[in-house]
Write a structure and sequence with these properties.
Structural class: mainly alpha
Helix content: over 70%
Oligomer: single chain
Shape: flat
Number of strands: 0
Largest sheet: none
Distance between the termini: 22 Å
CATH class: Mainly Alpha
CATH architecture: Up-down Bundle
Number of helices: 8
Strand content: under 5%
Order of helices and strands: HHHHHHHH
């Protein structure tokens, strides 16, 4: 999450990392606690119409996604399990943020249209992440695109924060932008994998083709 700011994370978050390590807190605990905080902040605050407050709560816990990685790197405990836990937790946190916005439109705005747009942003965002994970599991390189995960998160949180400050139509614009750019990103990544696959012998693995991942 927020890959573009990781270069600054060591400097800014270093004291927090050292504090937690000194008290025996594990990176996995930080990952789980951060995810719970994001889920509760998004699903409690956003449906109630507490937009800017929810953004502040979510943002605080989003930072844990950088802290746990720094802790694992500092202590030399980085592992496939930690990477798996981090990635799967990210999917849950994303779903909670977009789900909370969807509920805001449904309950506070009584707008089926914008709830549907928020749902589209959620679906295409999750699809984008799945395409990347599935492609990499098959040995392809897959990434980038018009709206990577960090971009999507920043857009939705900034839109919600400004909407909470009564800036008109900014959240609707953010959700429409996300739905469109996430859809484009899905097809960009699919095309990226297709181009790589064209250079391989044509075959399908009968053990995995058509099976859910």
């Amino acid at each position: 999450m927020l890959e573009r700011f990781r270069s600054l994370s060591g400097l800014v978050l270093g004291p927090v990392v050292r504090f937690l390590i000194a008290r025996g807190v594990s990176p996995d605990v930080v990952t789980v606690a951060g995810t719970i905080g994001v889920v509760l902040g998004a699903l409690v605050c956003f449906p109630q119409g507490w937009l800017w407050q929810g953004v502040l709560v979510v943002t605080v816990f989003v930072v844990s996604d950088m802290i746990d990685g720094l802790m694992a790197k500092t202590t030399g405990t980085a592992s496939p399990w930690g990477a798996f836990l981090d990635s799967t937790s990210d999917r849950l946190g994303d779903a909670a943020v977009f789900g909370g916005i969807l509920l805001f439109f449904a309950y506070q705005q009584d707008s089926t249209l914008w709830a549907a747009v928020a749902l589209a942003g959620l679906v295409f965002g999750q699809w984008t992440s799945y395409v990347k994970a599935r492609a990499e599991s098959l040995g392809f390189t897959c990434g980038g695109g018009l709206a990577a995960r960090a971009d999507r998160l920043v857009i939705v949180l900034v839109g919600a924060f400004l909407a909470g400050l009564d800036v008109p139509y900014v959240l609707e614009a953010a959700m429409a932008l996300l739905a469109v750019t996430s859809m484009i990103t899905v097809f960009q990544r699919i095309e990226q994998v297709r181009r790589q696959a064209k250079g391989l012998p044509g075959r399908r693995d009968p053990a995995t083709h058509g099976q859910p991942a």
